[in-house]
Specification:
20% helix
């Protein structure tokens, strides 16, 4: 991961190619299409070497890293990586979006929440820790950006929640996310409810009755006569051609 004060250099070219066929051909040639947006809503299509940007992406690890973008024939711009897209099958980068920034203007950025420590409600009371919120939004100057904020959850007991308002932030950062949103919760593991005793007894009774009825049916149809009991013979049919 890159340090926050480290300078990341990017080189790109203005992109004239438009349309899916031309962009697809450009990707096959090893180029990555992208767009640079500014605060006025204007955008500049660019392209850069995909492999070179892959190496940069591995270094920065995540968002909130200031980069210097040099577009051929234009002054350098300070930018942030907004988002990037990958091919779901080959995992190749397919597009990248950047936001041009001013070092004197505040901006809104996401900050990841990292939970630290083992809650007492887990280690001593048998609960589990649920991580409910993964990031918050803050406003700050670009030079004051952070990538993550660490929240100590070691003191959380069973049934206790921690909220956004419990996060300790540097005064240079203005919290934009509602303080009433829960970050984490310690609760008992969810287990399948057992049947009530009366329900279990009723089920057993119904099963026994069904088995008894089935047994009686078998005896009525195919059981041999009891000892001393005569089996009724069918009445003899009159012979044809006999005397009347």
């Amino acid at each position: 991961m890159v340090a926050m004060n480290e300078s990341i250099q990017l080189k790109a070219e203005a992109r004239a190619e438009k349309g899916s066929n031309k962009v697809r051909r450009m990707r096959k040639d090893g180029w990555l299409p992208g767009i640079v947006y500014n605060s006025d809503g204007q955008s500049v299509p660019i392209k850069m070497e995909r492999h070179a940007f892959e190496m940069v992406l591995r270094r920065i690890g995540r968002h909130n890293v200031i980069m210097e973008l040099e577009i051929a024939g234009q002054p350098k711009k300070k930018v942030l990586l907004k988002e990037f897209q990958r091919d779901s099958i080959r995992d190749h980068l397919t597009h990248a979006d950047f936001m041009e920034i001013s070092m004197t203007k505040k901006l809104r950025v996401p900050v990841e929440i990292k939970l630290a420590g083992d809650p007492a409600g887990v280690t001593q009371q048998g609960g589990i820790l649920e991580h409910l919120l993964r990031s918050i939004d803050v406003e700050c100057l670009p030079a004051d950006m952070i990538q993550e904020v660490e929240v100590d959850v070691s003191g959380m007991m069973l049934g206790q929640s921690m909220f956004v308002r419990d996060i300790k932030l540097d005064p240079k950062l203005t919290l934009l996310t509602s303080g009433d949103i829960a970050i984490a919760l310690v609760q008992m593991p969810r287990m399948e409810e057992e049947k009530a005793p009366e329900e279990a007894a009723a089920a057993e009774g119904a099963e026994g009755a069904a088995k008894g009825a089935a047994a009686k049916g078998v005896a009525a149809k195919g059981a041999p006569p009891a000892a001393g009991e005569k089996k009724e013979e069918p009445p003899e049919k009159p012979k044809k051609g006999g005397k009347k």
